[in-house]
Structure formats: C-alpha cells, structure tokens
Automatic annotation (TrEMBL):
Its EC number is 1.16.3.2. Pfam families: Ferritin. Residues 1-145 form the Ferritin-like diiron domain. It comes from Aceticella autotrophica. This is Ferritin. Fe cation binds at E17, E50, H53, E94, Q127. GO terms for biological process: intracellular iron ion homeostasis; iron ion transport. GO terms for cellular component: cytosol. One of its GO terms (molecular function) is ferric iron binding. InterPro entries: Ferritin (IPR001519), Ferritin-like (IPR012347), Ferritin-like_diiron (IPR009040), Ferritin-like_SF (IPR009078), Ferritin_DPS_dom (IPR008331), Ferritin_prok (IPR041719). The keyword Cytoplasm applies. The keyword Iron applies. Belongs to the ferritin family. Prokaryotic subfamily. Keywords: Cytoplasm, Iron, Iron storage, Metal-binding, Oxidoreductase.
Length: 174
C-alpha cells in the first residue's frame, strides 16, 4: 500500500512526465519550422518516451491500489535562441526530472516502501541514459556551431532514431 505522501508524489510525477512530453512537442515544433526533420524526429521519439513513462507510473499506482489524480499541464517554453539553446534547456529539464525521481526514491526509503523503491530503480537508470543523450547532443552542437554541413549530418543521424517501448511496458510489469 502506498503512503499518501508517496501516492501524491507519484501522481505529480505523472503530470511532470506529461508536461515533459508537452515541452518536447514545443521543441519538435521548433525543428519542424526549420525543416530539420531529423531533429524533429528526435523529439517525436522523446515525446513517445515521456508519455510511456507517464503510463508506467499510472499503471503502477493502480497495481498498488492507489487512485490516479490528474492535474492541469503547464504551458511549456516555446521560443529558443538556437538549436544549442534548445538542447541546453532540454538537458536542464532532464536534470530536473532526475531530481524528481531521486526525491521519489527518498520518499520510498523513508516509507520503507521496498516495492516502490524497486519500481523506481528503472527510472533512476533511465535518467542516467536521458541525461547522457542530451549532454552528448549539447556537446556536439557546441562543437558544430554555425557550420551547416555538420548540422545536416547530425540531422541525418537523428532521423534514424526510433521509439522502443520501455521495458516495464514491454514486459507487462507496469
């Protein structure tokens, strides 16, 4: 059984995951408007991942006998100075997600909620990957600067990204 503090925090995390998807829609739009379909594709996949993360939390709450509460979604940022600025903001956002996941783990530890702590470890590991991916792209964009050819090469690379159903959903362990 989830404590009321844990249940509230998990419900707020669902909201934050959906907000993350909404933010990434804004970022996808930035690249669509610039006809950089590979960069837009990167964010299309990211949107799917964030919505899948929200679904994993949603299913977990019900598995644990809790009730899902939905909150309004905040408006995301919609203007960016450059591709590098956008990815720096995305990295900062992912770091905020990581902080939130760590706080959920702290609550689980304080509650001696071993099941939720175990459940959250997938997200701890996922955030390492998320931050690494965004940091890599920030580094590349910083190196590329205003050079057109490398930008198009990175665009082509990002066009290859595909959505893979997260393992908790793929394995039916939500």
């Amino acid at each position: 059984m989830l404590s009321s503090k844990m249940l509230d925090a998990l419900n707020k995390q669902i909201n934050y995951e959906i907000f993350s998807a909404y933010l990434y829609v804004s970022m996808e739009n930035y690249f669509q408007e610039k006809n950089l379909e590979g960069f837009a594709n990167f964010f299309k996949v990211q949107i799917q991942e964030e919505l899948a993360h929200a679904r994993i939390f949603y299913e977990y709450i019900y598995r644990m006998g809790g009730q899902v509460v939905l909150y309004p979604i905040n408006k995301p940022e919609v203007s960016f100075d450059s591709s590098l600025d956008l990815f720096e903001k995305a990295l900062k956002h992912e770091k905020s997600v990581t902080e939130r996941i760590y706080k959920l783990v702290d609550i689980a530890i304080d509650d001696k909620d071993h099941a939720t702590n175990s459940f959250l470890q997938w997200f701890v590991n996922e955030q390492v990957e998320e931050e690494e991916n965004f940091k890599r792209l920030v580094d590349k964009l910083g190196f590329i600067g205003d050079k057109v050819q490398p930008m198009f090469m990175l665009n082509a690379e990002l066009a290859q990204r595909v959505f893979v159903l997260p393992s908790p959903l793929a394995q039916g362990q939500q």
